[in-house]
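Hey, I was hoping to borrow your eyes for a little while. I've been staring at a protein lately and its backbone has me curious. You're getting the sequence in one-letter code plus the fold written as tokens. Would you mind checking whether the tokens look sensible for this chain? Here's the protein in full, and shout if anything looks odd to you:
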Amino acid sequence: MKIRVKNLGALKQAEFEIGKLTIICGCNNTGKTYATYALFGFLYFWKMSLPVTVPDAKVSELLAEGTASINIQEYIENAPKIINEGCKIYVKQLPTVFASNQKMFMETEFQVSLDPADIRPIESFEMRIGATKNVLFSISKTKESDEVVITLLVEKDKIRIPRDIIKQSIGDAIKDIIFGHLFPHPFIASAERTGAAIFRKDLNFARNRLLEQMGSMEKEIDAFELLTKVYSDYALPVKTNVDFTRQLEDFAKRESFIAQEYPQLLDDFGKIIGGEYAVTRNDELYYIPNRKSIKLTMDESSSAVRSLLDIGFYLRHVAQRGDLLMVDEPELNLHPENQRRVARLFARLVNIGVRVFITTHSDYIVKELNTLIMLNHDRPQLKKIMEEEGYKSEELINAEVIKVYIAEEAPVKLDGGVRKRNHMTLVPADIDPELGIEASSFDRTIDDMNRVQEAILFSGEEQDSCSI
């Protein structure tokens, strides 16, 4: 999947491809977060954005005959057009995604390109639609057929669902069948996640007070609109972080495939935070340090513990294969050694089927990923290094699954002899299977620091030699 953007925040024009591990590096205010939030928003809204129309005649046939079928081949043939139109619809949602003024996105373009070979239906599908406890109709597709079959499961005269809802349900099912496996479910940890961890109780209190006030009002009000306005000043990724931390007690009742199949990965995450998280039945959240008989609230815990809270709960309770874990600045508040451990954690996630997308300023994370790339060769001396340095085979990663982009100024071009102004874009970084990722923005900074320090050191020698 490739994303192309124009006039999106600091990014004048850019293109990036989603790999199994995608990294965007660069200086501050270069558009990294804009690209990340725009991608998250599309993956969040895609089903609402893509225009898949179900003919009225099929709904009439369903209600009259009790069953109807739709051949999805026409939708597959029109998939590029559907995606293109959906992107145009999605651009209108960008002010909501960024909690910003609509004028900021008047000239914005957002495009998604898929490999035509990937646009094919899933083999089988089954969904049941109902109201309250009654299942009203089913939508299914078998492996051998391109027909989507809709079947009433109650008597026709008992259907009380509006025709528009029936059409929407069928349309959503068709989208799932054709596009669902192409657009991963996103989970994002925004750079503001530390604050959400601290103020989760206050956010619950504010929301509950609002519900109480709504209940005491005599005049009819739009409850959904009021609840939406509670967080209307926050970008969509921040809202989702807030909502996730508010519901930790509910999420803690689940168990992810990682917890079931890869408990050692969770043990290694525990080493990063130096303990574990716990939620009580009273929705009290604690951090329990290793080898200590104490429980700390989030206020009492370190900033590193708070910054990894939602990631920890995601890994243990929510993660599913095929997800896209998006982390804005994973290095937040982490010691360099833990930044290296986080890089190794990301590689392991990729290897078990969870895609990862990060923005980062951390040279430690990039260099540790380089180590994992360089060690991923069948050579006796590399195996010896792995054993001596404590690396695991499941942490090694193939360079081919990684996409890295540097947010920086595009090269200056001449247009009819006139020098055009620089603009921000995303430049693909070279990734060598032997040497790893070439992150030029980090390298330049490190080279500058080394040059200054060498000048300081050698300046003393020059003075000594002149005094002789």
About this structure: The longest helix spans residues 440-467. Residues 192-319 form one domain.
